[in-house]
Amino acid sequence: METRNVLPADVRRELAAALQPILAEAIDLERQAKQAHWNVKGPGFYGRHKVFDELHELAEDWIDLVAERIAQLGHLTEGTLQRAAELTRLPEFPLGLTSERDNLEQLAKALSAFTAHTREVLKKSEELGDPITADILTEVTRGAEKYLWFVEAHLG
Fold first, then answer.
1. Residues 125, 128, 131, CA angle at the centre, nearest 5°?
2. What is the pLDDT at residue 44?
3. What is the pLDDT of residue 55?
4. Burial of 105 (0-12, 13-18, 19+ CB in 10 A)
5. Is residue 4 in a domain?
6. Residue 87 sits in a domain of what CATH number?
7. What is the pLDDT of residue 121?
8. Considering the entire predicted model, what is its pTM?
């Protein structure tokens, strides 16, 4: 797509390509959080239900930040569920999880993988001289790591 963005075209292309899997994983994480939200059972149901819903809302914000950055770089955003399923590297969320602990464990694994991947692309954006993408990924990573801490705190 045409843009007057001052970053060189090759840098924009490389960053957009690196951001697509991050977008896919944010979409995957958002869906995993909602899956846990809908199915969790146990004595701490209400608290966990709210935790999972908050994660879902945060992931929606991350999706928007990353998708809009791809567009700002002059590239098409590939945000369909089908494309997300192709590109995500997060551990698959097993269907049938209902226990609080199992849902928390699964989301902790997903958040950990997500932050590892956002850190990789954050480093790449710094190396390519794009502080704007680095700033966006810092915000996403900061939020995801904070939420990982919340989820792990529920695990005890």
1. 50
2. 86
3. 97
4. middle
5. no
6. 1.20.1260.10
7. 98
8. 0.96
- Mean pLDDT per 10-residue run, the chain (156 residues)? 92 98 98 96 89 96 98 97 98 94 97 98 98 98 97 93
Q: For residues 147 and 58, is the Cβ–Cβ distance under 8 A?
A: yes
User: How many independent structural domains does the chain possess?
Assistant: 1
The number of beta carbons lying within 10 Å of the beta carbon of residue 9 is: 11
pLDDT at 156: 87
Long-range contacts from 66-70, C-beta under 8 angstroms, 24+ separation: 66/19, 66/22, 66/23, 66/26, 66/136, 66/140, 67/23, 69/19, 69/132, 69/133, 69/136, 70/16, 70/19, 70/20, 70/23
Q: Is residue 92 part of a domain?
A: yes
Question: What is the residue range of 146's domain?
Answer: 9-155
Average pLDDT, the chain: 96
- Look at residue 2 and tell me if it is in a domain: no
Sequence-separated (6 or more) residues with CB below 8 Å from residue 41: 98, 99, 100
Instruction: Compute the distance between CA of residue 144 and CA of residue 96 in angstroms, rounded to an integer.
Output: 25
Query: Is position 1 within any domain?
Result: no
